[in-house]
């Protein structure tokens, strides 16, 4: 699993963690390369700071047991400091512009692998549906308008994730890197790059209060993401958009009830794009927004 914040309820806290985490799980009831089953690729959630495909919550084996007519894939992507950190304000950081969205680039690499290789497992590379919750759903909403993704998937199912969960402006994305410099006493990128993996794991835990999420950089992800949607950037993708009724409970189970209660007590922000302003109900008890289209 990726190096990540180890909350008390995180089942991966005792799991082996490393930057060398970019693996996939392919689940099928039988190896039948001659078949062409629809493919589901699952993007795990976890606020871009924790989670992974080894978590039973995101296991695909039960899905294919219930639906043997599909091939299912889950995968890891880098998180937190290793996946989403903007070094642009750090001396030497301008040489690493991709660092702010490395986790998204990992996701694209996983989709490219699936497109090229899933036929060996009986999957149809022309029938790929992506599905994800929380950070996974948000990732899908970003990749849907990313030119590099092209036709890597045709259908998307998004649970409790949306483009509002990302960093839209540059100044919002730099505090994590600044705090990393303070915590390490480093003067620039050369010293940060020399940090051992064990230290990065320690710092991931220490700096968990600071945002480590994707950035609409204008290169990989359009800076005006809703405008990109309005201009038809994702017009060839079919979407199912939904929210988890008990999302807060799942979050609490993942990060610990005490921590989650503090977060929800401090603030609850519900942001809905202007084009989705017909809200039929809001459940404050579980932070669920139901939207009619």
Tell me what the structure shows.
The protein is of the alpha/beta class. It is built from ten helices and eight strands. The chain has a six-stranded mixed sheet. Helix 9 packs across helix 10. It is globular.
By secondary-structure content and strand pairing, the structural class works out as alpha/beta
- How many strands? 8
Strand portion, in percent? Answer: 15-25%
Report the major sheet.
6 strands, mixed
Q: Enumerate the spans where pLDDT stays under 50 for 5 or more consecutive residues.
A: 267-293
Helix content: 25-40%
Provide key terms for this protein.
single chain; 293 residues; alpha/beta; six-stranded mixed sheet; two-stranded antiparallel ribbon; globular; disordered C terminus
